[in-house]
């Protein structure tokens, strides 16, 4: 499986021919990218694009319409033609993906969580994974997040240090790959890391990953 993962910075070069020549089979968006950029990627490549929101993205949670009289479903917010996997488990191209968007809370706004709030989101995701595994007998292949697992990025400041809950999730569920954004490499190529057997990749601004 050839994966193109993108995050945080628009790659101007993708508006030329380099994009299609990479021939990815799936695109993963790790957050903080303009929606029209994601829509451009999905329409140009014509492969599934799974994404999670970053801390600079708008709130994508659907309003609760349980008690409103209108039966009209509100349109799914976010980039059109792309699949929001925030807090969800999904299968594409024979692999199982799960996503967790957002960063550590550092100011008011959507898509930010305390360590404790992220623990609860991770627990909910693990329940969904366990149910799927019980029914279909497969584990998680790829974890898509915006923030890094705690300690996986060199960042030390509060906004970028990452989530303890991601670290525990990776150690427990052991996906083959965990991709994240949020930590800007400022021109350096950040090497892949390993947490147990899981490859952890900072994809800012983009990476092609063979899995
Ligand atoms: Zn971010």
Portion in strands: 15-25%
Percent helix: 10-25%
Instruction: Write the H/E string, N to C.
Output: EHEHEEEEEEHEHEEEE
Rg over CA atoms: 17 Å
**Strands side by side in the biggest sheet:** 5-6-9-10-12-11
- Unreliable spans are none
Task: Outline the fold blueprint.
Elements: E1 2-6, H1 18-21, E2 26-29, H2 35-45, E3 49-51, E4 83-84, E5 89-92, E6 95-100, E7 103-104, E8 112-113, H3 115-136, E9 142-145, H4 164-173, E10 177-180, E11 193-195, E12 198-202, E13 206-210
Parallel strand pairs: 1-2, 2-3, 3-4, 6-9, 7-8, 9-10, 10-12
Antiparallel strand pairs: 1-13, 5-6, 11-12
The protein binds zinc ion.
Zinc ion is lined by residues 32, 54-56, 103, 146, 182.
Briefly, what is this?
The chain is an alpha/beta fold. It is 22% helix and 23% strand. The model has no long low-confidence stretch (mean pLDDT 91).
Write out key terms for the chains shown.
single chain, alpha/beta, 4 helices, five-stranded mixed beta sheet, binds zinc ion, 211 residues, six-stranded mixed beta sheet
Describe the structure.
This protein is of the alpha/beta class and 211 residues long. The chain is 22% helix and 23% strand. It is built from four helices and 13 strands. The protein has helices at 18-21, 35-45, 115-136, 164-173, and strands spanning 2-6, 26-29, 49-51, 83-84, 89-92, 95-100, 103-104, 112-113, 142-145, 177-180, 193-195, 198-202, 206-210. Strands 5-6-9-10-12-11 form a six-stranded mixed beta sheet. Strands 4-3-2-1-13 form a five-stranded mixed beta sheet, covered by helices on one side. A two-stranded parallel ribbon has the order 7-8. Helix 4 (164-173) links the parallel strand 9 (142-145) and strand 10. Helix 3 (115-136) packs parallel to helix 4 (164-173). The longest helix has 22 residues, at 115-136. It is globular. The model has no long low-confidence stretch (mean pLDDT 91). Zinc ion binds next to loops.
């Amino acid at each position: 499986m050839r994966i193109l993962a993108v995050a945080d910075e628009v790659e101007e070069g993708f508006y030329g021919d380099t994009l299609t020549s990479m021939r990815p089979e799936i695109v993963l968006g790790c957050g903080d990218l303009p929606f029209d950029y994601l829509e451009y990627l999905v329409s140009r490549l014509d492969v599934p694009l799974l994404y999670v929101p970053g801390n600079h993205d708008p709130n994508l949670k659907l309003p609760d319409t349980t008690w409103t009289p209108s039966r009209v479903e509100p349109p799914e917010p976010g980039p059109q033609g792309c699949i929001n996997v925030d807090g969800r488990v999904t299968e594409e191209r024979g692999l199982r993906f799960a996503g967790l968007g957002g960063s550590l809370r550092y100011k008011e706004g959507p898509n930010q969580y305390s360590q404790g709030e992220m623990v609860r989101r991770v627990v909910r995701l693990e329940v969904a994974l366990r149910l799927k595994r019980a029914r279909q007998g497969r584990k998680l292949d790829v974890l898509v997040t915006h923030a890094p697992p705690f300690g996986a990025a060199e960042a030390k400041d509060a906004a970028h240090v990452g989530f303890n809950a991601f670290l525990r999730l990776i150690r427990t569920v052991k996906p083959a790959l965990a991709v994240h954004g949020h930590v800007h490499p400022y021109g350096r190529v950040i090497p892949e890391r390993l947490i147990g057997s899981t490859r952890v990749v900072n994809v800012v601004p983009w990476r092609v990953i063979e899995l």
